[in-house]
């Protein structure tokens, strides 16, 4: 009898991380840009602004709010796929430390928070809701809490979950990994927004820096690591 040699299967690396990051970044930015244009240059109101301005915005620009919610919800889908793919790729690269799991959990929760914020925004575009000032304020606060602090803090965990093993196992350029750690720290500090309104300035900084970092890391994180380098990776992060 002839022995049949089986070739070991290579672990699948999943969809391109860089492309996924570009897709959810473009969708998110499009939601901001298009809704601002549709609202005649007015931006989504801050929950710390006056009630009159908040109610006027949602009353005057329901279509802009609806489009913003649609595009942000759409952005949450590739973001969730990115988190799952990045976690799987880190495991395939030999990462056994918690970083891969942190990336998965952080990214999944960031996508969930963004989706919830988008759905709250969609509800705010319904004319039936706009008749109650208290309801509008409550929904806007929920949209801000989920899409602002909630989303950014967990987005920071996604960045940290990739940056730490990227640094320790030499999977990413050292400067990029260190920048990722700094971005993650700012994202986690944005939790203070729930106590100090002035800390909200950290939200756009951490959000856009995280998006840019995830795009860059998505293109630079390797798919495979073979031979001597693979042993180094396992030893470094086991």
Keywords for this entry:
238 residues, mainly alpha, 8 helices, disordered N terminus, disordered C terminus
Description:
The chain is mainly alpha-helical. It is built from 8 helices and no strands. Helix 1 packs antiparallel against helix 7, helix 5 packs across helix 7 and helix 6 packs antiparallel against helix 7. The radius of gyration is 21 Å and the shape is elongated.
Secondary-structure element sequence?
A: HHHHHHHH
Please outline the major beta sheet: none
How large is the radius of gyration? 21 Å
User: What is the 3D shape?
Assistant: elongated
Low-confidence stretches: 1-10, 227-238
Strand content: under 5%
Distance between the termini: 42 Å
Whole-number average pLDDT? 88
Total E-strand runs: 0
* Helix count from the secondary structure assignment: 8
Content-based structural category: mainly alpha
Summary?
By secondary structure, this protein is mostly helical. It contains eight helices and no strands.
Describe the secondary-structure layout:
Elements: H1 17-38, H2 51-60, H3 62-92, H4 99-124, H5 133-168, H6 174-189, H7 202-220, H8 227-237
Helix pairs in contact: 1-3, 1-7, 3-4, 3-5, 4-5, 5-6, 5-7, 6-7
